[in-house]
Design a protein that fits this description.
The protein is mainly alpha-helical. The chain has twelve helices and no strands.
């Protein structure tokens, strides 16, 4: 399961960031809050305007959230169902509705595309941590107990840097539970 999850994050990064040079450059240089927000806005534009990208990254995000068994999936579902309450969905899909789209952004600053992209960015930002875990797993022969032993062994200098980097991530324990017993 860990390898599958790791693969999904890499595909997500490839589609959203690596395939677009300007986004890739922005990703590497976005250190300030303003630049990170600008990056997110650019990714939302790509997500909204390219149906191929949209379908691909939605499936990858869904895979990741299902693997981690996150409760956010329910919140996203509620957001999508509430978004279309009381409208003729067939007409909106067929013809679009600029008023609805504009009002949706004004009334809900955490609109669905922004929310999805934010979750994708968070997963991609954790990719280096997942890679560090992979390095320890290769030594641990892909076993959860041995991995946790390496993580808790402060004496072992061999994995000190990797351990520190992993423990900086608030989600590392969630990722560790994906490792086979």
């Amino acid at each position: 399961m860990f390898e599958f999850y790791r693969n999904r994050i890499k595909l997500l990064k490839k589609i959203l960031i690596d395939e677009n040079e300007s986004i890739k450059e922005l990703w590497e240089k976005a250190k300030s809050l303003r630049k990170k927000k600008y990056l997110q806005e650019k990714l939302v534009q790509i997500y909204v305007n390219d149906s191929e990208v949209q379908a691909s990254v939605e499936m990858l995000l869904s895979d990741c959230m299902n693997i981690l068994n996150t409760k956010d999936l329910k919140e996203l579902w509620l957001k999508t169902t509430n978004l279309f309450s009381g409208i003729s969905l067939r007409n909106v899909i067929a013809h679009g509705n600029p008023l609805l789209e504009s009002l949706g952004t004004l009334l809900d600053p955490n609109d669905l595309p922004s929310e999805l992209v934010r979750k994708m960015i968070n997963l991609i930002r954790d990719e280096p941590v997942v890679d560090c875990m992979q390095q320890i797993l290769e030594k641990a022969e892909y076993q959860f107990p041995k991995f946790m032993e390496f993580m808790n062994d402060e004496e072992d200098e061999q994995f000190k840097d990797l351990r520190e980097k992993i423990k900086e991530c608030k989600n590392w324990k969630d990722y560790a539970f994906l490792i086979p017993l």
